[in-house]
Structures are given as C-alpha cells and as structure tokens.
Amino acid sequence: MSKVLKTLFAIDFASSSKEALQALRYIQGHYGVELYLMHVITSFWRSWLSSGLHEKEQLQRLESWSSRLREQQLAPDHLIIKTGTAASAIISEANKLDTDLILIGGHVTKKRFGTEKTAMMVVRHASQSVLLCKNHVFNKVLCGVDGSKSSARALNQAINVCRANDLSLTIASVLPRLDFNPLGMPNEDIEAREQAYREAKIIEINEFLDHFDFSGVQTNRCYPWGTTSRVMLNMAFDFDYDLIVIGATGQSILSNVLMGGTAERILKAAPCSLLITR
After folding, report:
1. Fold identical between 4-133 and 140-277?
2. pLDDT tens-digit profile, the chain (278 residues)
C-alpha cells in the first residue's frame, strides 16, 4: 500500500450508502484504509423527546453496518454518532479527525441527510477530497484535466484507482472557445485560427500529461470543444462512465476551467459517482 487513507464514511442508511460501502473496496485496492463510520441525527427534538432512545437505535444500526464491513475485511476503527446539521457535522468531524477523504452516498433525500444541499455544502467547504457514490461497480473512469495543480491531483488519484482495480481511464481536456471576434472573417480563416489554437492547446496538455506514469492503465485522451461541465456530463451520460474525477479548485492553462463552480455544476447533475479531489 502506498499510504493509509483516513476515510470518514458518512452513512444515512439509504440505498446510496450501500453503494458507497461497496466503493470502499475500490479504495482499499490501492490504499490502506483507516475507517470512521459516522451517522448524523438531524432532528434534535426527535432525539430529545425519545430520551436518547433514538440515538441508541441509530448507534445499533451503525454497529450492524460495521459488522457488514468486517465481513469484507474493512473493519471500522471508530463509530461516531452526532446530532445537528448534516453537512456541518460531517465537515467538522472530518477536520477534527484530519481525514483524507469523505465518503457519502449520492442519492440524498429529504428524509435522510436533509436535502441535496448537504452534498453541495460538503463538497464546497470540506478541506478533504469527497467521493459521492451513486453506483458501486466501477469499470470506466472519466477524469477532467486542464493543466492545473488541482487537476494533477485528480489525475494521480484516478490513475491509482484505475491501476489498482484494472479500470479504464479517459482523460478529457475540454477546450473553451477561442477568444476572438470572427465578425467579417471568412470561414476558412476562422477554421484555420481555431485549428491552430486547438493544436497548440493539445501540445500544451500533452506536455503536462508527460509527467504522469500511466503504466498498467488503459487510457484514452480526448480534447472536445465546449463548456467543461456540460461536456463532462454529456460524456458521462452518453458513454456510461461509472466515475468522474475532477479537481475542486486551481488555476488552469485552459482559461480557468475546472474551477469550483464547474465542480458544483457537475455535482448537481452527475449521472454516476463523483470524486472531487483536494
């Protein structure tokens, strides 16, 4: 194992938590896992009116999930029950434990973590990488790369997971529109200018990718035109990718794409699991 990955698995006992549970196997394929299981009781009054009985019930349920993980050789190191706002509790506990990764289910409902805003808040404010699971079988991974430090971290994570679990990796470097005014220009001149721009950007991205070790990983590179979030979502949907990996922040050599706003837009509509790295 290259390192021990301290992972906070926030469980809401929905079906998506089962998907996230299975995803731990892919993480374990490359890393040693120090695992913390956490459940947040979002209704203070429910806990208070039951004189602590509701909290005991949830702890018992958390223990049953712990037993299930032991069967998969993923024995949790700690079980944590908190009361409060789900996103705040998850972020606070992750910071307190100094974890490397927050793992949560992707199908968030009002009866569980409160609203879909929980996932958004966790991704937006967490200092750690966040894996949002919507499916438990990973075969095809799509990684967005723009030449930034954050996309370098994302690509390294994607390579590690793919190599350890024999997954295929597609690297997408989305090219934004060329910033010029084509008014009055002949079509052939516009096309020539766009082609020169595209070729220059592809060379720049490939030089960036030359610094990574892709040995043992089946890879494909693509350089589509468009807006990063739309292109990534369309690719994930059209070609049935199981996992999207992107960096959360960072300056880009492709006109500041793959910034935080892009990650949030992908988070809102991702048709598959999403790993946002920091």
Report:
1. yes
2. 357 789 999 888 777 777 777 777 777 766 778 889 888 887 655 555 555 677 778 778 777 877 777 776 666 778 888 888 888 999 999 999 999 999 988 654 434 333 357 777 888 788 899 998 888 788 999 999 988 888 999 999 999 989 988 999 999 999 987 766 666 677 777 778 888 888 999 999 999 999 999 999 999 999 999 888 899 999 999 999 999 999 876 444 444 444 456 777 888 888 999 999 88
Residue the block writes with tokens 């490939």: 206
CATH superfamily membership of 140-277: HUPs (3.40.50.620)
Predicted TM-score (pTM) of this structure: 0.82
SS3 142: strand
Q: What is the DSSP string of 200-232?
A: HHHHHHHHHHTTS--TT--EEEE--BS-HHHHH
- Residue 230's Cα: distance from chain center in Å? 17
| The domain defined by 4-133 carries CATH number 1.20.1250.20 | no
- Residues 6 or more apart whose CB falls under 8 angstroms from that of 159 comprise 169, 212, 213, 214, 217
Q: Under a CB-based contact definition with an 8 Å cutoff, are residues 255 and 240 in contact?
A: no
Q: Provide the total of helices (H) and of strands (E) in the chain, helices listed first.
A: 9, 10
Domain ranges of the chain: 4-133, 140-277
CB neighbours (10 Å) of residue 99?
22
Query: How far is 2 from 224, CA to CA, in rounded Å?
Result: 34
Q: Which residues pair with 6 in a beta bridge?
A: 34
